[in-house]
Structure to design on (522 residues):
DNA sequence: CCCCTAATTCCACTGAGTGGAAATGCGAAG
DNA sequence: CTTCGCATTTCCACTCAGTGGAATTAGGGG
């Protein structure tokens, strides 16, 4: 009776685990609860399978069940694992404090991110604000790779084949202006290669510059500095860029010291 | 040849998914990389199984592989899921800003947490600091349930049978002073029932008071306020406690307004 | 109260997953 | 460069865990 479509993962890869992770991923930022039906829709999995997997995720503490509305939400466990990821990260451990100091010194925002598929994910984002009405740190927030300085610096830092693979994905998803966009992305990558950084303003009146951090045995990271409420100008971009280059050099030095550990 | 011990999960529950989650959990705060061997040791799973599951987790983006040292670390994906959890949380969305305002107004730390097994996990922790040398927000950080005001307030907020189940677990794990400790926990629970809050100083010179937040269709949360560099005094505790009660009432009002949504 | 919708459980089937053994890879020592 | 020793990965035959369509149950609205 079971007409399971043959699993493509082959000998490596565990189908149920993959599917369970897919279910967790179905909870995108902003969604609170999802019912099994919605999950089945979003993931394309059979409803009965979803029913069983969500139950397992509840038992494992990754989901909380909301009996009154027959639905689920991400449980606190996921942020404790996220916290473990951040405290484990040797890069964040080493340069987190430096980033804070630099933000205060230069009076601008400093961020550190790496890639999750086609998005950049902040590991840390320090917002400079003159008054202590500080923002909450947005660790975990995602921004699109192809539109941001962070993402383009990342692209400049990774190996050729992976870069081309990602560029193809952008082509597929952005509806309009693809050609101009891709050219712009490549221009940013060249800028990183020649100047060490690239500058982008994907949000109005925000100027951001970023540079890749490439270290053996670690994913490629991107470090950025940004400033709000300014007009984009090449002079300003290169000023911030020079700060960024200097700071990135200091970071790499610090990281080189503690890496072999 | 395969002599798999019969899976206890029965018809509900997916063994592979459970095991995969166990592997993610093996990365506790502070650990950077783990090899398959270490993971097998920590989880008690067969080495070959671990090998296959870690590969799946890499393919699913939850782990990064460090080829040079044949090991794995948590990938950025886990913090984006964590971020989704935080931005989805209706409680945090509603009272996050209020917490920040309250922290500034009362000049003390304000935190919001819920339970992950026997630990309390901060969803938000706003540290008051007179100078803007603010700390990074420690969302995701865990503190032991039985030793903290947060945890005891949580215990006071949950249903009887679940509470007794947890108390038994504490008995099992704490080596010394169990009896005195449990009595102390029960005293805190009584305090919550009579005064609305409990006060605990589990860290030297830090006074913390907490109160539960119980809402239909949501996990039980605990809200706390704390102050550093003070001596524990009942007068101070009840002063902060009254602030906390007032603030919690305001929070519950705000939450009642937006819950039915 | 009864229908309608959606989630859950049932069930027979089978291939996905298993774990011990063998092979492979990697680093260190000679 | 070769050999040894350890750890990880691959192989493989076996079988039970997992599957998904159908039946059932549970809610919620009229």
């Amino acid at each position: 009776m079971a007409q399971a479509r043959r699993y493509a993962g082959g000998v490596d890869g565990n189908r149920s685990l993959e599917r369970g992770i897919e279910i967790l991923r179905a909870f995108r930022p902003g969604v609170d609860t999802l019912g099994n039906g919605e999950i089945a829709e979003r993931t394309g999995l059979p409803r009965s399978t979803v029913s069983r997997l969500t139950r397992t995720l509840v038992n494992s503490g990754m989901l909380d069940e909301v009996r009154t509305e027959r639905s689920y939400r991400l449980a606190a466990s996921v942020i404790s694992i996220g916290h473990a990821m951040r405290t484990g990260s040797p890069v964040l451990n080493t340069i987190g404090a430096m980033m804070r100091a630099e933000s205060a010194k230069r009076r601008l925002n400093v961020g550190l991110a790496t890639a999750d598929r086609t998005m950049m994910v902040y590991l840390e984002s320090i917002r400079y604000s003159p008054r202590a009405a500080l923002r909450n740190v947005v660790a975990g927030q995602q921004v699109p790779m192809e539109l941001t300085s962070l993402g383009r610096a990342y692209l400049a830092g990774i190996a050729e084949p992976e870069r081309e693979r990602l560029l193809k994905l952008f082509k597929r998803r952005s509806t309009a202006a693809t050609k101009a966009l891709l050219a712009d992305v490549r221009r940013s990558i060249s800028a990183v290669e020649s100047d060490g950084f690239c500058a982008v303003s994907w949000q109005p009146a925000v100027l951001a510059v970023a540079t890749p951090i490439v270290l053996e045995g670690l994913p490629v990271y991107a470090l950025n500095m940004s400033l709000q409420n300014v007009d984009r100008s090449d002079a300003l971009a290169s000023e911030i860029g020079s700060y960024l280059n200097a700071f990135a050099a200091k970071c790499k030095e610090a990281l080189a010291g503690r890496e072999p550990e």
